[in-house]
Design brief:
- By secondary structure, the protein is α/β, with parallel strands linked by helices.
- Among the domains are: 1-25 and 56-63, no CATH class; 71-208, P-loop containing nucleotide triphosphate hydrolases (Rossmann fold, 3-Layer(aba) Sandwich).
- It is 37% helix and 24% strand.
- The strands form 2 sheets. The protein has a 6-stranded mixed beta sheet, sandwiched between helices. It has a 4-stranded antiparallel beta sheet with strand order 2-1-4-5, with helices on one face.
- A hairpin with a 1-residue loop joins strand 9 and strand 10.
- It is globular.
Length: 265
């Protein structure tokens, strides 16, 4: 029986009196790779901020059965990669130094492990088995195929490489949930392919639950097992086969994406 990693019930979020997210409800099973699709301005980033404890909301959000403040001790175990990685070009750090920033002190992890054990979560800690922090960093870089870049300066990387470094930084702490917010925006096709390979590997081999927002329907169709379609409200949540075989839904998705696009211009 798989556990629910995330449960969202009737979540609404307002900005300056207007609804950015309107009564959204869905569950994410442990081990799921959920692809969230929706136009720009659909409230996806705002919604992610609520899960991460950075945004006020009404309704309920549960992480591994724990609600609200009760899951706050688990927040450091959520890996998050945002759409735009803001990094000072001349920042004097190497790739491995940036990934090492993601490491959490063992005593902190001990507390989280106890909480997770008590709620019956099977926490698959890939990097825990490695003793030295430097080896954990190396292993996380190996996972995203950037091992040979460990001593490079962060300012010398391409956008796609930088995103993979930030995935490694999110992975090195053995996250219980990985949230990716349109992580390949503005990245070339070849790099996107590599990136998608990494996502698949993390989900299948490391059994990490992933919630990933993207405009790339083709990639979602290939990689996700479930899809949520969102534009302030939730239009659909279910198996990806159901979503992609539903002409009406796809039409609604492309129309709302087009409307938002026109609105933004």
């Amino acid at each position: 029986m798989s556990m629910k990693a995330l449960q969202v019930s009737d979540v609404s979020i307002s900005y300056n009196g207007s609804l950015a997210v309107d009564k959204v409800s869905f569950d994410v099973e442990e081990g799921d790779l959920l692809g969230i699709v929706g136009p720009n301005g659909a409230g996806k980033t705002t919604f992610f901020r609520a899960i991460l404890g950075l945004q006020n909301y009404s309704g309920k959000i549960r992480l591994f059965g724990l609600e609200g403040k009760k899951y706050h001790p688990l927040l450091p175990l959520i890996g998050y990669v945002s759409q735009k990685v803001n990094f000072e070009q001349n920042f004097p750090a190497t790739v491995s130094e940036v990934v090492a920033m993601g490491l959490l002190p063992e005593k902190h992890l001990h507390k989280s492990a106890t909480i997770l054990q008590n709620c019956g979560c099977c926490w698959n800690r890939v990097y825990k088995k490695i003793n030295k922090d430097s080896d954990k960093v190396l292993e996380a870089l190996r996972t995203v195929n950037l091992e040979s870049y460990k001593d490079r300066r962060i300012g010398d990387l391409s956008g796609g490489e930088l995103q993979r470094v930030f995935i490694a930084k999110a992975l090195v702490k053995d996250p219980i949930l990985l949230i990716l917010d349109e992580p390949v925006t503005g990245v070339d096709v070849e790099t996107q392919k590599k990136f998608y390979g990494v996502i698949k590997k993390i989900n299948e081999e490391n059994k990490i639950t992933i919630v990933w927002s993207s405009h790339d329907l083709e990639a979602i169709a290939k990689l996700a097992n479930r899809v949520a379609c969102m534009n302030r409200q939730l239009f659909f949540h279910g198996q990806k086969e159901e979503f992609f075989s539903n002409k009406e839904l796809l039409k609604t998705y492309s129309e709302s994406a087009m409307q938002m696009h026109m609105h933004h211009h």
